[in-house]
Here is the input.
Amino acid sequence: MENKFSFQNQKGLTMIEAIIATFILVVAIIGSYLIFVEISSTTKVISSRLTAAYLAQEGMEIIRNIRDTNWLKEVSWSDLIDGVPCSSGCEVDYRTEQGDTSTLFSWGTSGNYLKLDENNYYSYSIHPLAIATKFKRKIITTHLNDNTLGVSVLVQWEDRGKPYEFLVEGYLYNWK
Here is the structure.
């Protein structure tokens, strides 16, 4: 009789152990899945942030290029294109083709999405094959004094309904 009683107790313990082991396994699987989802989401945001940083730096370089081109043309160094300042915000892009030294400038009203063309260049292209991206770039210039121009480049985008921004600020000087 004692053997039968201890055998029944072992069955009960085995069932409890199986339930606990299943619970631990389920918690581990769900935890691993949630960690994977979070890492995947974070990786996407980091990738977008890196692209935004490059687009912001490119915006700064475009304004620097315009300043230098103006010096070469012997026009006011702080006017952007055709004497139009960018104090209320503007959209600017450029692309230099191989063998072509001209620069293409596109102006907008700060709200258009940058597009990715067939050569993987970001621009405000109207080419039918260009694909709209999630990035907007706004460049603002401020005349601080006769020899200093403040430049702010703001890149905005959305990921999963959440807005993000990347801002680069700098100064350009009349060093000529």
Helices lie at 2-73. The beta strands are 113-116, 122-123, 131-145, 148-159, 162-173.
